[in-house]
């Protein structure tokens, strides 16, 4: 209980950003607010996504706030703001222009755009906002309850071999559920771990550096991750653009008549919001399964229920049903909070947004996401736990802001979807390269980023999912450490992964995941 | 011009009175730009925090800009390699432990990494190294450790460096207890491992102080020749069968050949920050290590030389 109060105190009692009328504005909530606005704008811009904005802003934030422990909460505030804002903002172009601002808003176009064409854009946006924020809030509550509980459970019952097996299971699961085939997912995981092996490990000589001086320090994490995620995406979009595979026509006019939420709307969509939030939360808690799947599941499930219960005068899904928007938006927004459950309790990132939160924690220091965070030590204070509760406070605050001003700002952001890609891409490229250079002022870091960008482009050409690569790159160190420690702790037992029934069960589940997912090929995208 | 004379005189006087703190202000040396501080410790641990607080303290005291940067890996040798190649003008310094340039450099044998390639600036704190266990666990005293061994129970001992691992092995040989030696990434991770039950014992070099004072953990044995501040009665590892201590210092280093005035100014700035309990760094060191232990100049050169010779002997004994 004391920790919760301390966490809240840390958010509001942090360093002052500036003073307004003699009253200091604490940095963390202010950054959260700015992040939220940025996130909504970014989410509303097709071609940009929340993780991209988080990636670019992270190095810049670090250069502003430095790498002191008191920088953690303001930086997290901004990143969480972006995460929350982008979830809400993604619905804007989907509803207004039939363009999903973020991939998971695709389902929103199905009902949102028909509503706009029937002259109800405001009503559609308000429903999207309401559902999105409700989904997010419910999911956050699940996070606040589950993460500490799960972490304590893990620490109490899992020994080193079991922890190793758990990381292996997560990686396998991520390989299996992301992308078009398990094989490609495993390739991505393998390559990611290979890249992370360079110049790490416990030996006194840099490993796998091939005697090359530039390799002997390993690949800088920020350059590698930004390279794969952003430069790769930019190269791919450029390629698309040159070949004319995409034509973005955002000239559809809207006829915004007098509309808005109608009486009974909330009651109509509430069951859909609750159902989809639950789906999103459960899906989000599994590492690697993205919000797109949650949105699809929420939508299809909602459609089935709606088809049975609807009155004849109500629109069916796909024809402008408010329930359709609610089912989609609640599901994809509910992913974002629950996605932090594996991050905070196990240190395993489940999606790109979580990757950047881990990167932030890693670069600033003083907070190592993982089960160790939730050690309620007495009498000395565990500063990491205070940070964790600070993060929870920020998330709750973010929801509050989203409820209040988010909707207003969101409806003003329709204009962002008209920015042509030929202006957008160079700006993103420039900002990304600047961000990398700010974080690591060496030309080598830029070359690394370009190298990984090309790799990311090749991944996209070959339809190999790139996120498993990034997650494996980040988790490889933990996996290696856990395996080493488990090996020596069991007195050098080579079969330590099968030394207890829990770890054996994890290993069997990992193998089963590969086989089951491999047998049922289908369209699965993370 | 004339007005400057009293100022200079005052500065000299102040320098005579407070030799160490005054170095920073009066040595006339200013860094050519921002100082990069390479930190050879895992982010978020006790040593990392210490380095960052010292950096902050130097900034506050001198107005210089200090940019901390994590350069971890290979027990500080990654940092040593990068630092050796960095410009020797005081713009790049590093924080490591003395054993990086002593035991680790000797062990790896790479001529680039030997202590002669570096200028030691100042030590900040001596290891308060203890063999730590949970107070309410099954290994809370050396007798309990022996009893567990006799009962045939495997005992996991967490180590954060190669030297600690060698010493664990050496202690095992001397005391007749074979440990399962588990390498982790620093003292705070050892403490987390102890709390989680992943480890039974572990070497911790000072971060355990408040946990021991609060009754959560105990120092089963001491790894240093002087009594541990928190547990003066703990037996030393030499009494338990080891031929060596596991002593050492946290220290700042620069590349070899930096100008003398730069060395003096940097050493002085570091020393004045850590010796002042009013600074956050000084307070942290007082809390975790019972106070700063500052060696600079020739005294530090001599200590490092002795530590190198000890390391050669330890490696010979263990091999």
UniProtKB/TrEMBL annotation, chain A:
Record carries keyword Coiled coil: no
Residue ranges of the TM segments: 74-97, 141-158, 165-198, 218-238, 277-301, 385-409, 421-438, 444-460, 467-483, 495-517
UniProt cross-references to InterPro entries, sorted A to Z: DUF112_TM
Pfam families from the UniProt entry: TctA
Every DUF112 domain range: 31-471
Keywords: Membrane, Transmembrane, Transmembrane helix
Domain of life: Bacteria
The keyword Translocase is assigned to this record: no
Protein name (database record): DUF112 domain-containing protein
Gene source species: Pararhodobacter aggregans
UniProtKB/TrEMBL annotation, chain B:
Lineage top rank: taxon: Bacteria
Keyword Lyase: no
Signal peptide bounds: 1-24
InterPro entries: BUG (IPR005064), Bug_dom1 (IPR042100)
Record keywords: Signal
Name of the protein this chain belongs to: Tripartite tricarboxylate transporter substrate-binding protein
Family named by the database record: Belongs to the UPF0065 (bug) family.
Source organism phylogeny: Bacteria, Pseudomonadati, Pseudomonadota, Alphaproteobacteria, Rhodobacterales
Gene source species: Pararhodobacter aggregans
Coiled coil start-end: none
UniProt entry tagged with the keyword Signal: yes
């Amino acid at each position: 209980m004391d920790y919760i109060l301390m966490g809240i105190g840390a958010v509001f009692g942090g360093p002052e950003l500036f003073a307004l009328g003699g009253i200091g504005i604490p940095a963390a909530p202010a950054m959260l607010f700015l992040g939220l606005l940025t996130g909504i704008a970014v989410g509303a811009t097709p071609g940009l996504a929340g993780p991209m904005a988080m990636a670019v802003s992270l190095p810049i934030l670090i250069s502003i706030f430095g790498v002191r422990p008191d920088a953690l909460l303001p930086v997290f505030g901004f990143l969480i703001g972006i995460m929350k804002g982008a979830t809400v903002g993604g619905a804007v172009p989907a509803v207004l222009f039939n363009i999903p601002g973020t991939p998971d808003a695709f389902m929103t176009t199905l009902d949102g755009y028909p509503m706009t064409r029937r002259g109800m854009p405001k009503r559609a946006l308000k429903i999207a906002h309401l559902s999105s924020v409700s989904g997010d809030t419910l999911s956050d509550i699940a996070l606040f309850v589950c993460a500490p509980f799960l972490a304590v459970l893990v620490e109490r019952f899992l020994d080193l071999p079991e922890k190793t097996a758990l990381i292996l299971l997560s990686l396998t699961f991520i390989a299996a559920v992301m992308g078009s085939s398990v094989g490609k997912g495993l390739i991505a995981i393998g390559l990611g771990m290979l890249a992370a092996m360079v110049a790490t490990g416990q030996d006194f000589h840099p490993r796998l550096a091939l005697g090359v001086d530039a390799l002997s320090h390993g690949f800088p994490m920020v350059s590698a991750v930004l390279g794969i995620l952003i430069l790769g995406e930019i190269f791919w979009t450029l390629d698309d653009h040159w070949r004319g595979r995409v034509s973005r026509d955002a000239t559809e006019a809207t006829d915004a008549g007098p509309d808005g939420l109608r009486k009974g709307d909330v009651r109509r969509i509430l069951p859909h919001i609750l159902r989809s939030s639950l789906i999103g939360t459960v899906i989000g808690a599994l590492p690697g399964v993205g919000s797109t799947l949650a949105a699809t599941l929420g939508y299809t499930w909602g459609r089935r229920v709606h088809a049975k219960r609807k009155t004849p005068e109500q629109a069916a899904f796909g024809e402008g049903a408010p329930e359709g928007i609610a089912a989609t938006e609640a599901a994809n927004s509910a992913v974002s909070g629950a996605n932090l459950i594996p991050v905070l309790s196990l240190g395993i990132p489940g999606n790109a947004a979580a990757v950047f939160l881990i990167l932030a924690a890693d670069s600033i220091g003083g907070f190592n996401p993982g089960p160790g965070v939730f050690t309620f030590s007495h009498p000395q204070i565990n500063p990491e736990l205070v940070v964790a509760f600070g993060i929870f406070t920020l998330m709750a605050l973010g929801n509050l802001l989203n409820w209040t001003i988010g909707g207003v700002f969101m409806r003003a952001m329709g204009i962002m979807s008209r920015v042509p890609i030929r202006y957008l891409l160079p700006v993103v490229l420039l900002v990304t390269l600047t961000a990398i250079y700010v974080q690591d002022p060496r030309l080598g870091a830029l070359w690394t980023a370009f190298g990984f960008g090309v790799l990311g482009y090749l991944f996209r050409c070959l339809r190999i999912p790139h996120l498993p690569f990034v997650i494996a790159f980040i988790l490889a160190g933990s996996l290696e450490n856990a395996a080493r420690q488990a090996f020596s702790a069991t007195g050098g037992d080579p079969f330590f992964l099968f030394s207890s029934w829990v770890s054996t069960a994890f290993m069997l589940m990992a193998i089963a995941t590969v086989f089951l997912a491999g047998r049922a090929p289908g369209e699965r995208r993370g | 011009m004339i007005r400057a004379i009293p100022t200079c005189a005052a500065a000299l006087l102040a320098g005579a009175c407070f030799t160490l703190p005054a170095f920073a202000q009066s040595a006339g040396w200013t860094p050519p730009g921002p100082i990069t501080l390479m930190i050879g410790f895992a982010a978020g641990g006790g040593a990392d925090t210490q380095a960052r607080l010292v950096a902050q303290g130097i900034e506050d005291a001198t107005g210089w800009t200090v940019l901390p940067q994590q350069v971890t890996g290979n027990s500080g040798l990654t940092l040593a390699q990068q630092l050796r190649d960095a410009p020797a003008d005081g713009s790049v310094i590093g924080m490591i432990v003395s054993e990086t340039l002593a035991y680790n450099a000797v062990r790896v044998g790479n001529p680039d990494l030997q202590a002669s390639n570096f200028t030691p600036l100042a030590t900040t704190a001596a290891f308060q190294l203890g063999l730590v266990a949970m107070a309410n666990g099954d290994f809370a005293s050396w007798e309990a450790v022996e009893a567990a061994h006799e009962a045939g129970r495997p005992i996991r001992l967490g180590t954060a460096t190669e030297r600690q691992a060698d010493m664990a092995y050496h202690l095992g040989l001397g005391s007749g207890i074979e440990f399962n030696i588990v390498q982790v990434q620093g003292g705070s991770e050892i403490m987390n491992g102890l709390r989680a039950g992943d480890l039974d014992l572990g070497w911790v070099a000072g971060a355990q102080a408040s946990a021991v004072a609060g009754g959560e953990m105990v120092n089963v044995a001491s790894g240093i020749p002087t009594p541990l501040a928190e547990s003066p009665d703990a037996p030393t590892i030499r009494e338990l069968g080891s031929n060596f201590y596991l002593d050492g210092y946290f220290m700042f280093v620069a590349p070899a050949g930096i100008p003398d005035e730069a060395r003096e100014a940097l050493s002085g700035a570091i020393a004045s920050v850590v010796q002042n309990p009013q600074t956050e760094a000084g307070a942290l060191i007082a809390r975790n290590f019972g106070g700063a232990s500052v060696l600079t100049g020739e005294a530090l050169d001599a200590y490092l030389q002795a530590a190198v010779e000890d390391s050669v002997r330890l490696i010979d004994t263990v091999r």
